[in-house]
Amino acid sequence: MTQTLFTLTFLLAAPFWALMILLPGWRWTHRITASPLIAMPPLLIYLMVMIPIFPQFWAAVSAPDLDALREVLSTAHGAAAVWAQLIAFDLFIGRWIYRDSRDRGISPWLISPVLLLTIFLSPIGLLGYFAIRAVASMVAGEPRSAWLDADSARPNAGAGQPLPH
């Protein structure tokens, strides 16, 4: 059962990634990714594999101990739980990158490779997006700190509508 859930985790997230990477301008992609609940399926799998090991996991994370954490993660349930958490959080981060880049008018040609990187190495993908975001703000002539602002000076920022490309 744990192996099946492990396999199912990415399969449930893959359609959302495909939409953001392959069909970034499609109106249904924007509509579907409008909800942060796209990360819910992997999170539900996380709960399913975490519940049986919750006492051991809680002991390892509530009083952080590397050996205790290593022990719980070396189990099938522990590895599957962390995998589901990674998939859910990577998708959540990817969703933010996709939507923020659309609001800022950043080309999908720049963002699709970043999203691919985010699937596999989300911290590096996120850092890459921050760099692209900073450069895009400078090119747009925005104040130096605009790339840090969640809603910057973009006319449609936060409005949920992509800027035309």
In short:
The chain is mainly α and 165 residues long. The protein has one domain. It has helices spanning 2-22, 27-32, 40-50, 54-62, 66-73, 76-104, 108-120, 122-139.
Description:
The chain has helices at residues 2-22, 27-32, 40-50, 54-62, 66-73, 76-104, 108-120, 122-139. It is mainly alpha-helical and 165 residues long. It starts with a helix and ends in a 26-residue tail after the last helix. The radius of gyration is 18 Å and the shape is globular. It has one domain. α1 runs antiparallel to α3 (40-50), α1 packs antiparallel against α7 (108-120) and α7 packs antiparallel against α8. The protein contains eight helices and no strands.
Features:
globular, disordered C terminus, mainly alpha
Count of discrete structural domains: 1
Mean pLDDT, to the nearest integer, reads 89
Helix content: 55-70%
Number of strands: 0
Count of helices? 8
Distance between the termini: 45 Å
Shape type: globular
Can you write the helix and strand succession as a string?
HHHHHHHH
Class based on secondary structure composition and strand pairing: mainly alpha
Strand content: under 5%
For the CA atoms, what is the radius of gyration? 18 Å
| Largest β-sheet summary | none
Low-confidence stretches: 157-165
